[in-house]
Automatic annotation (TrEMBL):
Segments crossing the lipid bilayer: none
Signal sequence coordinates: none
Residue ranges annotated for the KIB1-4 beta-propeller domain, each copy included: 7-185
Name this polypeptide is given: KIB1-4 beta-propeller domain-containing protein
Cited PANTHER family: OS06G0659700 PROTEIN (PTHR44259:SF113), OS07G0183000 PROTEIN-RELATED (PTHR44259)
Organism classification: Eukaryota, Viridiplantae, Streptophyta, Embryophyta, Tracheophyta
Pfam families the UniProt entry points to: Beta-prop_KIB1-4 (PF03478)
Domain of life (superkingdom): Eukaryota
Length: 193
């Protein structure tokens, strides 16, 4: 099996002296460079929950996902971001053909983040379990850099602060810039932009 051409990598992180490489096909490869091998020492599948906080399934034809790896207080987290490909003026993900003129003007790229799910690696079972609270922490996305900081002033909010990282669509119209920014509350699934 050729690991280099099978699927593209979308995120990597060093964690506990190993390299974790997230692929766009939903697998996470673990590379231990202390071992004399040119192949991953472990390959884990990631099967995300695809329901929102109201129990509704994110329709795959109206949503895309982006995943990120981040270390938090000694744990390895996998953050799954759900993005409505076309979102109308009421905030609902719709088919592109359903957008009216009021939804597309002045918008050029009407995609919008609609939610996040966070998973923690349970290495003893080689699985990912869903995280319902960040504890005393907050996750920030700034441009294409992901950082995780201790929570000091945002108590009780359980937030994920995010910025637009959809560079392909933003670059289609450089005057538009990034619009998909906001705060997502992991406790109740609400967003503020």
């Amino acid at each position: 099996m050729n690991y280099l051409t099978e699927s593209a990598y979308c995120d990597i992180i060093c964690y506990e002296t190993q390299l974790f490489a997230l692929k766009d096909n939903g697998t996470v490869e673990v590379w231990d460079f202390d071992l004399p091998t040119l192949f991953p020492t472990n390959i884990m599948s990631f099967r995300p929950v695809i329901i929102d906080f109201d129990g509704n399934e994110f329709p795959r034809d109206k949503f895309s996902t982006q995943c990120y790896l981040v270390e938090s207080m000694g744990d390895l987290l996998l953050v799954n971001r759900f993005i409505g490909n076309f979102v109308n003026s009421e905030g609902f993900a719709v088919d592109e053909s359903d957008l009216g003129i009021e939804d597309t003007q002045p918008l050029v790229c009407p995609y919008r983040t609609k939610g996040f799910h966070v998973y923690k690696l349970v290495s003893i079972r080689n699985t990912w379990e869903i995280v319902e609270s960040l504890g005393n922490a907050v996750i920030f996305w700034v441009k294409i850099t992901l950082c995780h900081c201790p929570l000091r002033i945002f108590k009780g909010v359980n937030p994920i602060y995010y910025t637009d990282d959809n560079w392909d669509q933003m670059n289609e119209d450089y005057l538009y810039g990034g619009h998909d920014c906001g705060v997502f509350n992991l406790t109740d699934g609400s967003s503020k932009t």
